[in-house]
Amino acid sequence: MDDSTHPRLGIGLAAVARPAYLTSGRARDLGPDRSVDDLRARTWALLDAAHAAGIRYVDVARSYGRSEEFVAGWLAARPGTGDVEVGSKWGYRYVGGWRVDAEVHEVKDHSAAAFAEQSAQTLDLLGDRLRIYHVHSATLDTGVLDDVAVHRAMAGLRDRGVRVGVSTSGPAQGDAVRRALEVQVDGEPLFTSVQSTWNLLEQSAGPALADAARAGARVIVKEAVANGLLAPGGGDGSPGVRRAEAVAAELGVPVDRLAVAAALAQPWAGRVLSGAVDPAHLASNLAAVEVVVPDGVGAEIAAVGGTAQEYWGARSRRRWA
Hints:
Structural class: alpha/beta
Number of strands: 12
CATH topology: TIM Barrel
Domain NADP-dependent oxidoreductase: 45-303
Oligomer: single chain
Number of helices: 12
Strand order of the largest sheet: 1-2-3-6-7-10-11-12
Protein name: Aldo/keto reductase
Pfam families: Aldo_ket_red (PF00248)
């Protein structure tokens, strides 16, 4: 790999390829212009900046508005991007109608029929550029981790050369990760990629992610800046956020840079995603590779923060904007 690349960093398009999301500060960061053409142009500009900075992994999903379409168009228009890997996800459908004020923005469906429909749509757009395909927010309660029909269908994709895995959310992420690691098809582990939320405010999945890495799975960290809570101007004043901001100030760096650096410091973290929506935010996230996180910072922030249940409960109440 060229020395100019960032093998442990990626760019996720959850916050930029659809008009509404729950990230803090969207009115400030995106403004009112959120038509399909506006967000396509913004996404392409972000991808151009990411590629120029050495990012070679892009994370999208069927439910991230038109993220797959935007990436497919960008790849086709940029012949120098043959080294870019794309990971996508199935299991949610975008139903927001490109409205910020939609009552429902996405609907979960982990059935075999949903996989058949959505994987066909993904492959139609991305073709052989798709490298990883995750179950989107796999949990024990949906049954997807015990659904033999889904596993067999996903193994068909695995056998075509696409790595398959799970993404996780919620206070029981660790349980979902460990169950996913147990799934085998034809005597081989099925899920060899795990994408989970880990940040200074929500560290509960760490032990399970370490298990995943030891088992040979690739571990991808999402939401390292806690959907904007650990970004300048996005904090909610909670004790964990205040402590993270204070540590960042002591180090002389923005809090987002500390947050991404803390994720990169985890020995099991194979890749950490930036969820930036503009090149300036992306540059700040990428500068995290230069930050040395003092020993004990994670434990210190966890000690003053809330529980995983409190974190996810508060997240579920956040308004999409």
